[in-house]
Amino acid sequence: MAEALTTSILEPSPGGPHGGSACLLLRAADLVIALPAATALEVWQTDRCHPVPGTPSYVVGIASWRGVPLPLIDLAAALGLRRPEGRAVLGGRRVVVISAPPYLVGLAVEAALGVMDLSLDQARTPTVVNVGRLAELSVLEIETPRGVGALLDVESFLDAVRVKA
Amino acid sequence: MSTADRLENKLDLLCIATAEGALALPASEVRSVVDAPAEPHGLPFLDLVSLLGPGDPGAEKRAIRVAPPGASPFLLLTNGAIFVRTVARDELQRVPLWLEPLVASFGEPRLWLHDAALVLVVDAASLGALCALERVAALAAPAGERA
């Protein structure tokens, strides 16, 4: 099951070693989160973000990225890893610009840790990272040089958190 | 663009500051701004302070009387700053697709985004509908939970 899910999350990069795929490692709260690197357009930083009335508190707001209005999501808060008091703020954090058609969003994270090549046999059913909303999302657990992390299905995550409670 | 076209392209917005950013509606749909009555009566009302937090904590509430074309008039209660901005209609942008369901209670709002400000431009009729929903919710709430 883990292998089938990994295959759906990751599209193998032809040039990658071990037939694996490049993953971008991020830190959200204290957890390492891995995303398919192909979905990330840029790791960005801005201090200009405007809140949007009526949205959930994990929506930091909208920033202008290359002239395009970009919704910013606090990844840790959206995953239930941290409960912000009031609306989440950027506070100097990094923004990873994600393209997961038809969506273009920014994920506010504590840090962008680097890129690793992930092969199918490195992913397993979650035991350690089964916390917050990760338990209800399609995630797999992976060993990374920065510790145990969660491999996130970006499309499922973005669909799950665009539903108003 | 001719002068007539330029004028046609202009839109006056009545902007309302809230704790979560600014909302705006076409100024042509606003009839008046008055001090909020202690007990709004006669018209349905939507309390933006309850819905979105205080725009200016400590400031007195005011009532904006809104009359959308073809829909019932209602009051918006706010204690945030109220100001008018003139924008070009073609400066209004669609809300990013990912955000659309999260702001759907405001109908199909548009964004006016500048470096220093973002305004969520809503149509007054959708606020009126929200207003009706809030009233229904208030009436349906158990008596102990009502203000």
Mean pLDDT of chain B: 83
Total strand segments of chain B: 10
Low-confidence stretches of chain B: 141-147
Q: What composes the largest sheet of chain B?
A: 6 strands, mixed
Measured between the Cα atoms of the first and last residue of chain A, the distance is 30 Å
* Largest sheet, spatial ordering of strands of chain A: 8-1-2-11-10-9
| Ends apart, CA distance between termini of chain B | 53 Å
Task: Order the strands across the largest sheet of chain B as they lie in space.
Answer: 7-1-2-10-9-8
Largest sheet of chain A: 6 strands, mixed
| Average of per-residue pLDDT values of chain A | 84
Radius of gyration of chain B: 16 Å
Per DSSP E runs of 2 or more residues, the count of β-strands of chain A stands at: 11
How much helicity do the residues of chain B have? 10-25%
Q: Tell me the overall shape of chain A.
A: globular
Q: Can you tell me the overall shape of chain B?
A: globular
- Please trace the helix and strand order of chain A, writing H or E for each element: HEEEEEHEEEEEEH
Number of helices of chain B: 3
Can you tell me the residue ranges of chain A where pLDDT is under 50 for at least 5 consecutive residues? Answer: 1-9, 12-18
What percentage of amino acids of chain B are in beta strands?
35-45%
How would you describe the overall organization of this protein?
The complex is a heterodimer of chains A (165) and B (147). Chain A is mostly beta strands and 165 residues long. Chain A is built from three helices and eleven strands; from the N terminus they run αβββββαββββββα. In chain A, a hairpin with a 2-residue loop joins β6 and β7 (103-109). The longest helix of chain A is centred in the first third of the chain and has 8 residues, at 2-9. Chain B has 147 residues and is of the alpha+beta class. Helix content of chain B is 20%, strand content 36%. The termini of chain B are far apart. Classes of the chains: A mainly beta (165), B alpha+beta (147). The interface between A and B is medium-sized, with 24 and 26 residues.
